[in-house]
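Example record

One chain of 257 residues, shown exactly as stored in the release files.
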Amino acid sequence: MTVKLAVSETGEGKPLVVLHGLFGSKRNWATIAHRLATNHHVISVDLRNHGESPWDDRHDYPAMAADVARVIAERAVGSAAVLGHSMGGKVAMLLALEHPELVERLVVVDIAPAPSVATPVEFVRAMRAVPLDAFTSRLDVKEALADAIPDPTVRGFLALNVAPSPAGLVWTVNLAAIEQNFDMILGFPDVPLGTLFTKPTLFLVGGRSPYVQPHHHAEIERLFPQAVIEVIEGAGHWVHADAAEAFIGAVSRFLEG
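Predicted structure tokens for this chain:
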């Protein structure tokens, strides 16, 4: 069963659906969406169990792809270009493979159609262990995660999933569902032999990121025979944040090509 996802829309032109990664949100993509909206109707999505979208016990790629298919049917009037980062890139790939009629062009950011290195499940458990009722700000939460998550950039990103409520701070991500489905999030669904997405596809890879390696290229080319793999040197997994200008340039050239 699909859930009705929260979206933000900006710009006019051909539709472009933007899908964030694990623990991300459409809000994290607001600046990129604004830049791409110069020539496109950008539809930024909160995937299920994230941001402003509904929570559900199910958190697997077929379910998430079906949610996005509903967005395209309702908001894009038939089909759209789809851009997905990390977990959102896996959602985008499966959507394109299962429903190629909905996807005009595909941009996959720093993820492969294969099991991946990702946020350790211990990070999820550390987030669940934070006593939110004892804190009043995201900074407090970020500091509380320091022992389990030494990297301040990662802690700051995860703490963006905290929001105020009448009852105090709350997580805006369904940590229980994420932990329960973590193995599926790391993986990628098996697709029937012969399933292909033959439309234009761009894989944007961070040069400092471990998520897409040369041994993944054969599987990318098998499932996406029109794929072009472009490396943005100096960028890590969050390519759009680490090298925003290069990212915008590459995406814009591809969408307008």
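Notes: The beta strands are 7-10, 14-19, 40-45, 80-85, 103-109, 162-165, 168-171, 201-206, 227-232.
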